Amino acid sequence: MIECLTSRNKPVIGMAEPLALPGSYMYDGSGMDVITDRLLREVEEYANYDFDGVILQNMQDTPVRQQSNFSAVACMTHLSEAVRREFPQLLQGILINWDGCASLAVAQAAKADFIRVEHCYVGAEVTTSGIINAQCPEILQMKRLTGADIPITADIYEPHAMPVCPRPIESMVFSAISQARVDALFLSGHNAQETIEMGRRARKVSVAGRTVPLYAGGGTNDANIYDILEVYDGVCIGHWIKDGYLCNPINPEKAKRYMSEVQRARENHGKV
Questions:
Q1: 99 neighbors 66 (Cβ within 8 angstroms)
Q2: What is the widest separation between alpha-carbon atoms in the chain?
């Protein structure tokens, strides 16, 4: 099933952020019709700029606890189904802060293509909401019990949290593949050079001859994406094309410049 990503040459995935959902602290009472329409317009922009897909994330619900509430699961399922109906050609991932089991439930119900588990797949990390612990046992058990054929992509290092017990990137990648059975990995450094170096080191890790695709999870822009895609299989972007904040509108000029550099990388680098 991870072929949904690997079959494409350097896929570019945009972060799509609905307004705060009912049940969250930031919900303003706007209603699901308004939330749905706004999200669909954002996804339409990504499609118009030739992005390969989107990840739906309830970022505007923060702060949240690790275990998602029922309302968020219900609302994200509704939104995912709406995006699938309107844009069946786009890849779709689900990221519910910070609950990989909830993401898997939504993805299975709405027929999304994959889930992204941030902060909470392996290890433990200190975040704004406190310490978040690995959910890989619960996610894999749920996947087995429900028969869900949904690929699991996971961030094992990214700069918005601090690992409780930092380990070398090679060790983290090995554990994620050999014990946590991840299908693909997201990596993000504090800057482009660190992201590239992490990718090169991670690329050398295999488990019984098995490797997994690597995707840059953040920190890219039009000045560094060409070099980053020499090392990575694809990329997910949100902050830079939204002028530094995921919940801002997409900046059209930045999106065009970014995709121009991606196309140059596709032509010159090819698949890793």
A1: yes
A2: 52
Contacts of 245 (CB under 8 A, 6+ apart): 239
| Burial of 13: CB neighbours in 10 Å, binned 0-12, 13-18, 19+ | buried
Q: Measured between alpha carbons, how far is 55 from 45 in angstroms, rounded to an integer?
A: 14
Q: Specify the amino acid at residue 240.
A: W
Structure tokens of 39?
Answer: 């999200």
Whole-number pLDDT of residue 1 = 60
Yes or no: say if 235 and 55 are a contact pair by the CB < 8 Å rule: no
Q: Are strands 114-117 and 91-95 parallel, antiparallel or unpaired?
A: parallel
Q: Catalogue the E-assigned strands of the chain.
A: 12-16, 53-57, 91-95, 114-117, 124-127, 130-133, 152-157, 162-163, 184-187, 214-216, 234-237
Q: What percent of the chain has pLDDT over 90?
A: 86
pTM of the model: 0.96
Question: Which residues lie across from 16 on neighbouring strands?
Answer: 56
At 5-35, the pLDDT tens digits run: 899 999 999 999 999 999 999 999 999 999 9
Q: Which of 22, 14, 13, 80 is nearest to 42 (CA)?
A: 14
Judge whether 86 and 40 are in contact, CB under 8 Å. Answer: yes
pLDDT digits (tens, 9 = 90+) for 90-127: 999 999 999 999 999 999 999 999 999 998 899 999 98
Domains of the chain from N-terminus onward: 7-269 (3.20.20.110)
Q: Which residue ranges in the chain fall short of pLDDT 50?
A: none
The whole-angstrom separation of Cα 59 and Cα 26 is 10
